Amino acid sequence: MLCIKKYYYNGDDVSKIKVLIVDDSALVREVLTKIINSDPGLEVVGAAPNPYVAVEKIKKLNPDVITLDIEMPEMDGLTFLEKLMRAHPMPVVMISTWTKENSEQALRALGLGAVDFIEKPASDQVNNINRIKNEIIEKVKRAAEARLRKLQHTAIDTVSYGADTVVAYKGRPRGTVSGQKVILIGSSTGGTVAVEKILAGLDEDVPGIVVVQHMPEKFTSAFAARLDKTCRLNIKEAEDGDKVEKGSVLIAPGGMHCILNSSARGYHVEVRDGNPVNRHKPSVDVLFRSAANCAGKNAVGVILTGMGDDGAQGMLEMKQAGAFNIAQDEHTSVVFGMPAKAIEKGGVDVVAPLHKIPYIIMENV
Predict the structure, then answer these.
(1) What is the pTM (predicted TM-score) of this model?
(2) Is 214 a catalytic residue?
């Protein structure tokens, strides 16, 4: 059982995580209630068929986590999420039926502040939802640990460094870009927004980048397409054999591992199936370990917000091979799990707030 510090002490139940379910389907509300209540650390304190009822129940019940559907009458889930994050931020896990079109909505939900998302089966919901019981329980527990702030409108390509404001690094602060350099980024919970902010703050002349973001296969292609529209770099979902080139970003496809390799012509990626590593596929550790083996001191590693320890061992191996490694700090992390584990293992050179990481990357390539 996942132990969460906020709610458990030495394995003893101190207080349960209170969950509010918001879904227009009475059947789904009933099934989710049974699943969540089946875990001794969780308790469904209420359910709402729409956001208007949810608002009143939030005031009355003060839940720790909300599960939220996207498609609902009267007010859709995204509109409600945006209002909630502006007025009263709290951990939200989106549970909805995803299609290719809805994957864009899922990404928008993460951008608005949702902690995570779960795909709700489109048919035979009772049996199929029960099949993802463990995923629902785990993600609700993870969400309870999220650090949230009020949603604000900010320019995504503007970052601060000390007293200065730098916009997208039109000129590099120091250092030169070497064709032999390569940047590896790993992230999980809260990472979609963090990755976007970092990539939007980098110059077109940056060395090639490979990103592992924990995400299902239906979402990584949409994530890459969205980043390609919002950032000045060339961004795509990685395919086997793709070159890692200056000014380009490859997003590891969901459900597959992404491995960095090299040849006389430079770096390229190998996309491979296999067993999950640290419960994830793609795994940050797989990418980082491959970078340690083939890039060594020419690699720059970045580990961002996320639950668990994926990437910590691989980042240590990168450092031992001569790489320069950066970890996102606790204050700007939605969940300070993966960065904390990497720091504890001794694989990190610099711990920095999110808005400073693009500058530090450009200083060290």
Answers:
(1) 0.83
(2) yes
